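Margin note from the TA: students keep mixing up input and output lines. Inputs are the sequences; the output is the structure of the whole complex. Example:
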Amino acid sequence: MRFLSSSWKNSGKFRFGVVTLAIILLIAIIAPFIYRPIIGNVSPARPGTFRTWEPPSARNPFGTDGHGRDILTDFLAGLQSTLAIGFIAGFMATSFGVVVGFVAGYRGGRVDTALTTFANMLLVIPSYPILVGLTLVTPQKTLLSMAFILALFSWPFAARTIRAQVLSMREQPYVELAKVSKQRDLAIIFTEILPNLMPYLLMGFAFSTVGAMVGEVGLAVIGLGPSDIITLGMMINYAQGWSSFTRGLYGLLLAPIGALILIFVAITMINRGLEEYLNPRLQNVTGK
Amino acid sequence: MLKRHPLLAYYLRKFAAYLFTIWGAFTITFFVFRMLPVNPIDSWVKALERQYAAKVEGGGEMVNYYKEQFGLNGTLPEQYVRYLYNVLIKQDLGPSFINFPTKVQDLIAQRLPWTVALLGTSVVLSWVLGLIVGMLAGWFRESRISGALTNVAISLSQIPPYLIAVFLVLFLGYQLRALPYRGAWDAQYPIGFTWDFIRSALTHAILPAMSIVLVSVAGWILSTRSLIITILGEDYLTYAEAKGLKTWDIMRRYALRNAMLPQATALALTLGAVMNGTLLIEILFVYPGIGELLSRSIQLFDFNTITGVVLLSIVSVMTASLLVDLALPLIDPRIRTSIQAA
């Protein structure tokens, strides 16, 4: 894990990203302690807890929405579920991408050609219409089923990156040495290749996570969110449909957009820090 | 013969991959959509029955008739073969469901100019801006402004354009009423080469174009900047500077010129992908382009329109990348040599 400490030491972007993301995650974790006192012991998604369209007050700092829910609670619960969908989908896509990328890169030959061609086909299909179609016919839209649908079309990105790295690593002297000393393939993969791939894995995970969150928000803003929870994308959908601005309920729109932008910026900064570690040319050290 | 003409072999291989990828991507989309557990015609006839609170006379026959019209009769493989036959031999994408009996190709032809005009302009505009700003940011990379600009660009480049669009709609459109944010022109002016129509179309395009440009210009700035920084390390630039050439000339003729090839390639690929990924912008601004057509057709499971639009998108992305593959060896002698050596 040397790349983590090195990135932390050398890159201000990486530090900024990690600290910002840590704060957001902390808010998401302690969210129940903030919204439980406001709404009591009911589901945050339950309508009719308060009167609709209450302006901001001491009890409801951002006011209440058109279903009579506290907007601060909407936001905190939405932050939790959006992050969860993003990370779960990112994890699924990366795991699958790693397996495919490894098999393609390590085996080479026909297997590689077949897998790469298939991944390339998926990459040129516009995925959003298919996501919308799949979501429209999914009867029970839960957090897990949404994450699964979002992961379906984002694994080829991870697979492509991992394959390229495995291809170049396969030729490295230390891997050849391991091969000559008759180590088993699995042992080589786990002890020689995987540790060196960690920064790329982390970057792939970050990209798929951002991609999944963008996709989730994209589906939710046209009204295709999960049915039993609130997400940040659904808040944006409510804000547009309910003309929240004329009612003075700015939080309904500004809070989710602000939080999403912060999450995206934080993850992008972490990625830039990792890139600078992998490609020192990007560090501001050369030239004038 | 192919052994003696490696360039020809390269072209043939690229072209074969082009056709095969289009076929594969199309086939996957075709089956994914038609395997969805929905029955658009049945639900349409049922809706009619509910509307008139009566059984539609000959409902079963009507369903069969329309299934035939839309090419939804028979098994999936039969539908697939028939669709391919219609597209390839008869150049017919079939009638649309959302606007029956208008053919899908006619619907696309009506919508395409709007999407191409809006997105084409935004993409080219952000490319030019990004190239200039990116070059300056690379050249003056030690300055504070350049550093701040780079950080802003890094942040902007990963934000989905529709988040910015929602913002712009609410502030500039809704609150300040400064700019129109619905539709592509004022319906009171007929489409034509009149000043009123052109002005109305332009003002309607400002907000959607702005939301796209803000994000994509950031990406171009970043890529140009890192290309320029790499190039600035080369010896011929030190030499050019030692010769006492004007800074502006070095930037334009030595640095930017070498960054042009990768950036022009990327521009071609981006233009090919213009159909994909701006659906939400068009929905949000009720802009009568391809994306808005696609979103309406998905909601009604209008398979012919969905398949037609997706096919168009796949073909344009693949064609752009094929053109780049074919043009690169002609433009760049280094690539030509590497193909011939292989």
